[in-house]
Amino acid sequence: MAKVARALACLLAMLPVLFPALAQAQGANYPFVYITDAAGNVVQGPERTNVIPLWPVRSCFGWSVAVPGPDREVDLVEIQQLSGKTRFDTGPGIAINANSDTTTRHIRDVTRDGRLEGTWCVNDADPPGLYKYMIHVDGKFRAEFTYCAVRFPADKPIDLRTLACKNTFESS
Q: pTM of the full predicted structure?
């Protein structure tokens, strides 16, 4: 589990380098989704969308939140509420509720270019439906994101740019 946590931390640190177009949207909070191939190479996206194809390992999704002020270390609390029971990665600072449909993650993170970002990848136990993410920074509510997790046939191509769900996904 420690290796998973370290890998996730490395990925989060590399998001602005891997996806510079997303990092340029200073001041805006937004969700994003990207698709990888079997080797883990990004083949589509990242796109600003809140529709998550439920393709285990291949579909990854995340959020980006603007944090005003100089880059610094902050307390980040991310609450994830899924539409049903799933299997979450565990690690330091992650609490899973009794129904296995909600986690609360408490970590210290560093803002980069005035932003914080979180990324998760779909697993084979993730349910379809609405996913809600609430982000708190230094004890203050910063953003809420609602995603639609949808089952698509894995053998049919989709274009992330054409997908949308009816729920608002900008920060409140």
A: 0.78
Q: Are 22 and 118 in contact (CB under 8 A)?
A: no
- Which of 8, 51, 47, 43 is CA-nearest to residue 25? 47
CA–CA distance from 96 to each of 51, 80, 89 (Å)? 24, 10, 9
Q: How far apart are CA 38 and CA 43, in angstroms?
A: 10
CA-based radius of gyration for the chain: 15
Q: What is the pLDDT of residue 87?
A: 85
Structure tokens, 128: 């379809």
Phi first, then psi: give them for residue 28, nearest 5 degrees. -105, 145
Check: CB of residue 78 under 8 Å from CB of residue 128. Answer: no
DSSP 11: H
Q: Say which DSSP state 162 is in.
A: G
- Stretch 118-141: mean pLDDT: 94
The b-or-e profile of 140-164 (16+ CB within 10 A means b, else e) is eebbbbbbbbeeeeeeeeeebeebe
Residue 112 has pLDDT above 70, yes or no: yes
Tokens of 8: 């996730």
Distance CA 54, CA 56 (A): 6
